[in-house]
Write a structure and sequence with these properties.
mainly alpha; single chain; MetI-like fold; flat; 82% helix; 9 helices
């Protein structure tokens, strides 16, 4: 009963923390999809320099821990620029998560594009379309449905990984619970945090499943 009362009192703070968790996840996914699309097209480019640059970016961000990337952007960048660039906690988190998700989403998008039958591109060119027009009007639209399951998985990973932002004192769900545990010494509150994350991931899992079913009708 005492635990329930504490959670009720923490309600506004937890709602605010959940808002930060969802905000970081959604912004990182949307911005990551846009940036990831350009990276994927770069990897598919016949220009070797562009291909190698995009490959290097993806290699670095997939090969290093997200926590390290977050620390680098929040702590190291201001120090390296003599505080000419000094990001607040939320912008630093958004940038770190976006750059990281873009690397993973780029490979998801590239694989999805490459899964489309090559005959589609040949038919588009036969109709007089340029490479860019074929990608924009024929190939990429067909890859939408195939993108939904892996993009959904990436979003769920982002949602859970946002707990890392508590390490730079950004007040998300994990930060609220950690602060309360430090004050009250009641580690059972971590269980409450787990329940909140489970609820959020379940909601978004259902959303992506419905999207997948909707777009599968057209395949």
């Amino acid at each position: 009963m005492d635990l329930i009362n504490k959670l009720i009192k923490l309600g506004p703070a937890l709602l605010s923390g959940a808002g930060i968790t969802i905000l970081v996840s959604v912004v990182a996914l949307i911005a990551g999809l846009i940036f990831g699309l350009f990276l994927a097209l770069g990897r598919l480019s016949k220009n070797k320099i562009i291909d190698k640059l995009c490959f290097t970016y993806i290699w670095i961000f997939r090969g290093t821990p997200l926590l390290l990337q977050l620390f680098f952007i929040y702590y190291s960048v201001p120090d390296m620029t003599n505080f000419a660039i000094n990001l607040d906690r939320l912008p630093a988190a958004l940038i770190a998560f976006t750059l990281n998700s873009a690397a993973y989403l780029a490979e998801i998008i590239r694989a999805s594009i490459q899964s489309i039958d090559k005959g589609q591109m040949e038919a588009s060119k036969a109709l007089g379309m340029s490479y860019g027009q074929a990608m924009r009007k024929i190939i990429i639209p067909q890859s939408y449905r195939r993108l939904i399951p892996p993009v959904g998985n990436e979003f769920i990973m982002l949602l859970k990984d946002t707990a890392l932002v508590s390490t730079i004192a950004l007040v998300d769900i994990m930060r609220v619970i950690t602060q309360q545990v430090s004050k009250a010494g009641n580690i059972i509150l971590y269980g409450a945090a787990a329940v909140i994350y489970l609820i959020l991931t379940t909601i978004f899992t259902v959303v992506f499943e419905k999207l997948e079913k909707k777009y599968s009708l057209y395949e």
